[in-house]
Write a structure and sequence with these properties.
The complex is a heterodimer of chains A (about 260) and B (about 280).
Chain A lengths: L1 H4 L8 H22 L10 H13 L2 H29 L6 H9 L5 H11 L3 H26 L3 H9 L4 H11 L2 H25 L6 H10 L3 H29 L6
Helix pairs in contact in A: 3-12, 4-7, 4-10, 4-11, 5-7, 6-7, 7-10, 8-9, 10-11, 10-12, 11-12
Chain B lengths: L2 E17 L2 E16 L7 E6 L6 H8 L7 E7 L9 E3 L6 E3 L11 H8 L7 H14 L15 H16 L2 E4 L8 H17 L4 E5 L3 H7 L2 E6 L2 E2 L2 E2 L4 E7 L15 H12 L2
Parallel strand pairs in B: 3-8, 3-9, 6-7, 7-8
Antiparallel strand pairs in B: 1-2, 1-4, 4-5, 9-12, 10-11
Helix pairs in contact in B: 2-4, 4-5
The chains are: A mainly alpha (about 260), B alpha/beta (about 280).
């Protein structure tokens, strides 16, 4: 039984998988409780983190989460629109280099670009949005072009044999045929978005947000608050991931990605 | 069985296709005519193309369907829209239906949407389209999956949908690239029935398919073409062309249930394939 659990590629029962997961969670919690019970500890103990939660809640955690989510959704919406435009233009030979160029920009450093954005946009909230949009666009465009590249030639040929002209092929195979993949690309890039969002909020201080809270906690070396915030950020990120995946499956019955 | 060849349906002359100056197929010539049998209402044409891998069968099919540009030569099909019985037109994308090995369909369309889309460019009215869809769905046993997406269909349902879709769009010609590849006995029978159904439904319906199964080709086809590398002046060339043709109608094999001795023909076809 134990041998099976530690042998590569062995198939185990669903109940055994659940037990393994519970064991790991209990192990992690025990490590946290006992590892932080002494006088000196690098990581805050559970009561410090709980205190952190209380403090954050009293400081308007819910409003900050709302602000972060608002920034996240506005940025994703705008970036998706722009990225889709570049991705859908990619099959056009004349415009392919432009779309390819956009994907290369994802290697640009964050700070350099934010400097130029600061020169153009003076309102902090807009600045946050456009920094996010520009960076997200590069990542989303890369993902969407990759989705298009993965479409088998048979699908294009199939549309052509049905007397579709080239624009109809683009519309049927790429735009309509891969609309569920757009949602999946957003989901896959959500981790980067969420990570970037917290950083942007901490660099450009506007109307609060989780990044702003982290920066403040960081300043006062409040470990309990920092960990509490990290846990909140992780949890919201995971919930968004689950939510988007659920929406994709609910809307597109044919989507089996 | 008594038969007669009428007007030309498909005419291929000196066809060659090259990718980046590499010649894949060359000097392909063939003529297929409408075959009419005595006392049989509709006899569609069934043509098999066989050959070893890499000899250009798929390229030949892509050329026939207008999916790849021709390096030289021409492909003509009967112009069904013309009142002149001998009128022909040059093949362009969409004139000849193409069903690939995977039975590709639009992943975002249900069977009903797929068939409706295939009829989009026809001159039928909306009600005529509805009637036609209903008729085919019933005849081809797809009534229970009309609202299903391709990923919800069984292999057989998917095959039939793909065939009807191409038939709706192209009307008379259908090319099937290895339709029996990877299928079990049951599915093979389903595809065979689908091809028979196609040929029984219109005099002009013409099915061209490729296969590696020589027995199936002999069972189903009226004409077998072998595509292989030709030998010219004792030297084996490295482009595909038609190296042999077997007219099973003339040989008394087509439509002949009593003919069961495939072994000799099978052996000869294998020999042709091996030397090309």
């Amino acid at each position: 039984m134990i041998k099976k659990l530690i042998t590569p590629f062995e198939k185990i029962a669903r109940s055994q998988k659940t037990i393994i997961l519970i064991v790991w969670i209990v192990f992690l919690l025990l490590l946290w409780f006992f590892g932080t019970s002494g006088q000196k500890h690098l990581f805050p103990n559970p009561s410090q983190v709980l205190e952190g939660f209380k403090g954050l809640y009293n400081e308007g955690l819910v409003v900050h989460i709302f602000n972060s989510l608002k920034l996240c959704f506005i940025s994703i919406f705008l970036a998706t629109l722009i990225a889709l435009m570049f991705a859908y233009l990619w099959p056009i030979p004349m415009l392919k280099p432009v779309s390819e160029f956009i994907t290369k920009l994802r290697f640009l450093p964050f700070t350099g670009l934010s400097f130029y954005i600061t020169l153009i946009i003076h309102e902090a909230r807009n600045m946050q949005i456009w920094i996010m949009v520009i960076f997200l666009t590069t990542f989303l465009t890369t993902s969407l072009i990759s989705v298009i590249k993965d479409i088998p030639q048979e699908e294009f040929d199939h549309a052509k044999t049905l007397k579709c002209n080239r624009w109809e092929v683009l519309w049927q195979v790429i735009v309509l045929g891969r609309i569920d993949y757009v949602i999946d690309s957003i989901r896959q890039n959500l981790a980067i978005t969420w990570m970037m969002l917290v950083t942007v909020e901490s660099i450009v201080v506007a109307s609060g947000g989780l990044g702003f809270l982290i920066k403040n906690s960081d300043k006062f070396m409040n470990h309990g608050r920092i960990i509490a915030l990290q846990m909140i950020i992780l949890l919201i990120g995971l919930l968004l991931d689950l939510g988007i995946n659920y929406i994709r499956k609910a809307i597109f019955r044919y989507s089996k990605i | 069985m008594e038969f007669e060849l009428k007007e030309t349906l498909l005419y291929v002359e000196n066809l060659s296709v090259a990718y980046d100056d590499v010649v894949i197929i060359k000097d392909i010539n063939l003529t297929e005519k409408d075959v009419v049998r005595k006392d049989v209402e509709n006899t569609g044409q069934i043509i098999a193309v066989i050959g070893r891998s890499g000899r250009g069968k798929s390229t030949f099919f892509k050329a026939l369907t207008g999916l790849v540009p021709l390096h030289s030569g021409k492909i003509l099909i009967k112009d069904f829209e013309s009142t002149d019985a001998s009128a022909a037109k040059i093949v362009k994308e969409g004139d000849i239906g193409f069903v690939d090995q995977k039975y590709t369909l639009f992943r975002h369309k249900t069977v009903a949407q797929t068939l409706k889309f295939a009829l989009k460019k026809t001159k039928l009215t909306d009600s005529e389209k509805e009637t036609k869809i209903k008729e085919y769905v019933k005849k081809w046993g797809l009534e229970n999956c009309i609202d299903k997406y391709p990923n919800e269909l069984s292999g057989g349902q998917r095959q039939r949908t793909a065939i009807i879709e191409q038939l709706f769009s192209s009307e008379k010609f259908i090319i099937m690239d290895e339709p029996f590849s990877g299928l079990d006995v049951g599915n093979i029978e389903e595809v065979k029935n689908a091809i028979d159904l196609l040929c029984d439904s219109s005099e002009y319906n013409t099915v061209i398919f490729s296969t590696h199964n020589i027995g199936l080709a002999i069972d189903l086809a009226q004409v077998i073409y072998i595509i292989g590398y030709p030998t010219i002046n004792g030297k084996l060339q490295n482009y595909g062309t038609i190296v042999a043709k077997y007219d099973l109608r003339e040989m008394g094999i087509a439509w002949n249930d009593k003919y069961t001795d495939h072994a000799k023909l099978h052996k000869e076809i294998v020999h042709q394939m091996m030397i090309s």
